[in-house]
Structure formats: structure tokens, C-alpha cells
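pasting input
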Amino acid sequence: MKLGDYRVKGKRARLGDWDTHDDGGLSKEEAQPLLAKLQEELADYQERLYAEGRQSLLVVLQARDAGGKDGTVKKVIGAFNPNGVRVSNFKVPTPEEKAHDFLWRIHAQAPRAGMVGVFNRSHYEDVLVPLVHGEMDEAAAEERLKDIRHFEALLGRSGTRIVKFYLHVSADEQKERLQARLDDPSKHWKFNPGDLAERARWDGYTGAYEACLGTSTDAAPWYVVPADRKWFRDLLVSRVLLHTLKDMDPQYPAVDFDPGAIVIE
Amino acid sequence: MKLGDYRVKGKRARLGDWDTHDDGGLSKEEAQPLLAKLQEELADYQERLYAEGRQSLLVVLQARDAGGKDGTVKKVIGAFNPNGVRVSNFKVPTPEEKAHDFLWRIHAQAPRAGMVGVFNRSHYEDVLVPLVHGEMDEAAAEERLKDIRHFEALLGRSGTRIVKFYLHVSADEQKERLQARLDDPSKHWKFNPGDLAERARWDGYTGAYEACLGTSTDAAPWYVVPADRKWFRDLLVSRVLLHTLKDMDPQYPAVDFDPGAIVIE
């Protein structure tokens, strides 16, 4: 499994180039101990990031309905110390939020130094939804994507590293997961009948996501994560996060006192 | 281990009435499987709380330095789904925060419906610190405590259940933990030389905490958690949280569609 194979390069990415059912040549049984080890390493790097208090990491999760965003938060982000994590769930904008530019509510949730911020849905919804619903033409969408590029560059220059994940599921897998929500009473609350109308716009979303993937840069790359297999999704996202944190190389800060000279009464 | 024994009743609680080294008659080995089972139950109740979306839980953590607040967040809160948790760390107030009343920044972090909010330090610091440092007399502290009672009652009537924990460590245990931070380079960043000045005010803090414990009510009880043994602290806090969530009794919401009648194309 080479991480670079899942990273979006250039502005003409096609989702069809990635196999939603990819398993990286591994079995679920082989993946389990690998994930456990990754989680330990991630927790160690997160502590360093928190201790250093100079950089931050912003994880953007996007997917179609039932694509696995919540599961990824639970399984991957769940391995981090909650003290240093803040998950932001962006829902349909409130009247107050709508009265501002689309990045206003997003900017307010940007992670402070030392923190890992997770956007469960994000500013990309403000391109995807209006584009697919025909409320915005491609030129207007391109303007928003330009705003996003500038915004992400600003964060990048200010110490925030951004990693963006598109969790890539097939139409068949989505159908199975939505059906599972209907079949299990304890999952009914997760089912939104409106999701079916969005499902019917499958190809429209494919095109809109491909437009979004064009914002992949070194400072804020997109990764397409084959997500039909949940265990592979968790493993790949964890690997990318560890790769990113290693590259950020957070250090325990130097202290301005001599630890050996201090006597505790 | 009876939870009621650790719950503060009345306005005259004395910390000396609880043994910091209490183990509830258990060994660490016996506690481990109990904690694991509690964590599963907590995760289940948290999902119900999130799904229901009507009530919220606010966990207040207070302790002396090295009392175990961060460890409790990591071990106990770490078992929750990060999607439904928000930890707020209250540090020394910024100039902007100081320009407002002391509850302004606190109120802004109150958990929304469906969420578990964790205050790692809290509004009680605004009584403890000025009281111990002689910047506020007892009458002024009593006024603030009255403000706090009103504020907590407001949250309580608005669907937020509050549980407040004082993590109770001995002076010897604090000394050991502070020394451990000096001895391990990867923990130096956690050591603040200023903590020694606070340690010297041990009895002052005892009295100030006892004043704070007077705000224990049915809707916002204080629990004194013997915390010299970390495993006992985690077990007791988890038990109290589960007890509280069971009492809140969150329910999966009814849906306004017929799951059996929906066909996914």
C-alpha cells in the first residue's frame, strides 16, 4: 500500500480511477494488529503536537451519505487524547451562518495551535450541494474553490497542516448501509429519507467531488480513500495521519528552568 | 463501593472526610475488567444521548495540580465517540475574557443538546484562585458561588445535566507526580515552576475547595473522587457517569417515516 497512490495530484482527478473495494492486498485479520500499532504511534505524535503548541492539524472528512465519516471519527480519531481534539460537525447552515460568507462559520472552528481539528463535513459542502442542486453554476463554484484555496493557504502559512479525505464508497455499498439503517431500530435515527434524493444524484456528486479534488496541494492534499471495507478505510486514514504528523515533526518544547535544580518541598 | 458515599451533601463538606488512597475494597487487577465493561456501557448511552438530541451532559473536572484531570479525560472520556464530545480547557483568562463577567467564556462552551461537554478546569477556578491568593474576600467569593448556582440551575432547567468531580490527591502523591515530571524529559513540558507556589498554599486550597463543594445540588452534584490510585479514580468517575446517564435515560428518537415502506433504488 503506497500512500502516494491514494493522493490526488493535478486538477483532473477522476474518482473512477480508484477502486472502492481496494484492500491494499491485505486481509482484515492482517490489518487489525497494524491498526493497533498505528493508533499507539498516532497517540504519541498527538501528545508531542499538543506539548509543542505551535502547529495544528486539520482533518477534513467528506463522503456521500453513509460513506463512513462518523465511523472514521469513532475508530481513527477515537485513538487520540480527547484533550487535544475538537470535532466540528457542519450541518445545514443556520440563519445567522447564512447571513455571513460561507467560510465564516468554518474559520471559527479552525484548530488552535497544538490541537487536532476534525471537520465532519466542511466548507466543501458549500460547493457540492449548490452545484449538484443547480443553485450555482460552474463559474460560481470555481470562485468558491478559489476562496477555499486562499483560505487553506492562509491556515497553512499560519501553522495548520490540512489533510482532506474523500471516503470513496460504491453505490452498492451505500445501498447496503442505508438498508441496514432501516432494518435496525437503533439505527433509524441515522436514516434521513432525503438521503435517497441525494443518492439519485449520484453522478452529479461524482462530478462535483472531482471539481473539489482540484484543490489538492502539498499543504492541503486530498486523499481518495477506498471505503467499501471499513477496516481498510481506518487503516489508510491512520497511515496518512501518521505520515503527516511525522512530516510535521512536533517536538517537546524546551523548558526555561533546570529540572535537576528544582526541589519539591 | 457505594456512589452515595462519594457524593457531597450539604454545605459543610470536609475533604478530610475522604481518604485519598481509598480503593473501594478492590485491587487494580479486579478493576480492569470492570472498567472495560463500564466503557462499553458508557459508549452505548452516549450514542443514545447523541441520537436523542434533547439533553446534554456537562462533566466538570477540578483538582490540584497533577491531580489527574488530563489522565481522567484520556482514560474515561477517551471511551466516548469523539463526535459527541467537546473538551474545554480553561486557562488563565485572556484580556478579552477578563473584560467580561467570569461566566461569559464558560457559558459559550456549554454543551449543545446531544453532546457531552467536559470542562477541564472550570468556573470554579474563578473562585478558588482569587480566594486563595487573597484577591477576593469570603463575601465576594460567596457572591460568585451564588452566581454559579444560578448559572448551573439555568443549564439544568434547559436540559443539561451537570456532574462535578473533585479529584482528591494527597500532598505526598502530588509530590511524587510533580517529581516524575521533572525526572522524565518527555514530561518537562507539563511541569510549571509556578505550581510549587500553589502547592505551598495547600491548606488555603483545601478551604477554598470546601467552599466550592457547597454548590452540590441534585441537578449539579459534586463527587469527591479519591485519586491517589489512578485506576480507582477512572473506575469511580466512570461509574458516576454511567449512573448519571442511566438516570437521564436518553431514548433513540421516533422517526416520522415508516422504515418498512422505504425502497432504496
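fyi The mean pLDDT of chain A is 97.
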